[in-house]
Amino acid sequence: xxxxxxxxxxRRHRPPLPHAxxxxxxxxxxxLGASGCRYYRNGSRHTDEEAQAHLLQRLDYLRGKGDxxxx
Length: 71
Description:
Blueprint: E1 3-6, E2 9-12, H1 19-33, E3 38-41, E4 44-47, H2 48-65
Antiparallel strand pairs: 1-2, 3-4
């Protein structure tokens, strides 16, 4: 797989997710971010927006590692 250097680390090319998967993920994360819920993680409480940002960061990380395929 193609790689690009980002921040001193080699990252794999991130092919786009299929439209259906991307739409479903965006919908779920949008609902999470607007839920008004508080989340408890690693001994700390977080807002719905923080939970949404964390999951987006994890998705980006896994896609960068090539652990989430585009198909």
